[in-house]
Amino acid sequence: MNKLLLIIQREYFSRVKKKSFIIMTILGPILMAGLMIVPVWLAMRDKTEHNILVIDHSGLFIDKLPNSTEIKFHYSDEPIQNAKQKLSAGNFDLIMEISREAINEFKTSPILYYKKQPGLSTEEYISNNIENILFDYRLQGDSIDVSKIRNARRPVKLLTIKVSETGKDEKTNTEINMAIGFFCAIAIYFMIFLYGSQVMRGVIEEKTNRIVEVIVSSVKPFQLMLGKIIGVALVGLTQFILWIVLTLIISTTVNSVLFKDQIADTMKQNSQMEKVMKDDLGANVQKMEKVNSPNEVIELFNNVNNLNFAKIIACFAFYFLFGYLLYAALFAAVGSAVDSESDTQQFILPITIPLILSFIIAQSVVADPDSTMAQFFSIFPLTSPIVMMVRLPFDLPIWELALSMIFLVLGFLFFTWLAGKIYRTGILMYGKKVTWKELGKWIFYKS
Amino acid sequence: MIPILEVRNIHKQYANHIALRDVSFEIKPQSIFGLLGPNGAGKTSLIRIINQITGPDSGEILLNGHKLSVNHIDEIGYLPEERGLYKKMAVGEQALYLAQLKGLKKAEAKEKLKHWFKKFEIEAWWDKKIEELSKGMQQKVQFIVTVLHEPKLLILDEPFSGFDPINAQLIKKEILELREKGSTIIFSTHNMGSVEELCDDIALINKSEKILDGSVKDIRKNYKSNTFKISFKGNLIGFTNALWAGAEILEKSSDEQTHTLVVKLLGQNKPNDLLQAVLSHAEIISFNEIIPSMNDIFISVVENKTTLNTQSSFTE
Asked: Is some CB atom of chain B closer than 8 A to the CB atom of A216?
């Protein structure tokens, strides 16, 4: 059997079988699913029903505050002391007292009595509605037509449409473009660090174990290095795929089990809202905003399709693979030059600088994707895997993409060759503090 | 007879220093060849060149009369001085991996490993992790892995380090057995006792140059310095007076009535001349020639002394 294949096999299985790999693979999706589910769950958690007793001395708000599914208003004119007893008895959650002067005060401050502190969203709901009623009341006092003002104020949402070569219109969305580009860039950034340092640790392990000399008497050092890099790449790929699959499984099951009712509810509400919207467009700003949200989601998905998903995925795979390969070779070279992990600092820094730099550059690339700087760094092989992923969603000339890819492949070949030179000398060098000058000399040793 | 290994004018230079300077020697097939030299002399560099881990700057190496090439890797077994195994990997799995790297088929390797594990009575270790084994146990596994593919040429660098005397004996037996079966062994060590015991021929490298080679027997004979040890009963003063013209006393020691001298014969004097001179003064108990040990030869050659100082050698 091919020796390189044997090495890849060992590197792959020895890592995949490790407890830490299994734990990380299971824990990762749980964390990710947690990130997706917890906010939804938190938002829903506060939806306990509140019964609010309103004691309105001004008389303006009686029967005007709108009930919602969670918040119900009740009205009374009894003295506040009696009402407070009802609070203690548990008839009501909250008691709101509105003073007689509420209408005229510059700043209206109703008082909310509670036994158990209401959530922020509840307080907001109450104050918003009071504000709205006061707003209407005051405008009417000045004999201004409220509906005209409502009509005049409409929310604005830019719809960007790209006119393609074929003359067909394509809807695009700058935000989603940025998000996808950035997500890919972050993924590549972390994968390079995560698996690159795994390669480095593997090399150091072989060196400190002193097994390396046994192995290089059977295979070429370069084969050993390449086998390790490819083996770890496959580990990364396995983990990535498992993460995605597990995350999807966990989040969909949890969503469907936990939030089944709510989802059905929301769907029903949405269809009702849409009806309302058709009947009276712009009659109610609040309703309008609510209606917007499901539509926006649909819009987003449409745009994702228009992004030419296949292209993004293909480029992501390419830049991830070659970016990792290039950096993994450098990490392997660093691992070979040191005796223990604590000695890696001085050599790791020059590797991390271009990675971090490309991340910083990526942020300004988003603002101006066609600047000279963006062009340069998306072609320069040490930064292109990250910078190009951010630029990619903003349609760039095909020749730039091709050039960037060619340079990355060339960069990968060059750095792997360079790393191989350092590696084959480094792995057999024990108990010696290596300097940069020495590394340079190793490159020019004859094999 | 074609030498199994021919080292021809090997020259190797690193950035600042010369590791090997024009080193040549030959190794007979089915022999044990001692590769000796002080630390940093260039032995490891040479071994790495033979293993094709690095290449020489000039010169060539022939294995069985053919220039060393990638195809020969599987015919060589190498136990480096700095050796180890993957700590987290199971013994059997690891041995299989290393055997396959040496070109053995998996099934074949497994069969052979079972045989060796049985022989060394370590079958129970198969699923253990290396880190669970003691140093000596690890060395046993490492030795098996080195010889498993039945290499024609076996390079053992300090093979006995880490073994207790019993296991060292076991390994020694295996080495001799491997030679019987047709392997040639390059044996690098600082333990001169085991060189005398095991090696047929040696080469001594010092400061990147080969300064001595040949069969152990011949070398020891060549380094004889006409030195004898004589024990007797009788008058010590009379005895030494009788000696003075033909021999130099290097060392004296006495216990009760027995005196022991180490003497070096001067000029053309023969042992018989010495005995004749002293016979009337004492009762001779023993008389024998001191053959220099490899240890003495090593020290003397490396320290570049032309005559051998045998003062320390009372061993023979």
From this structure: yes
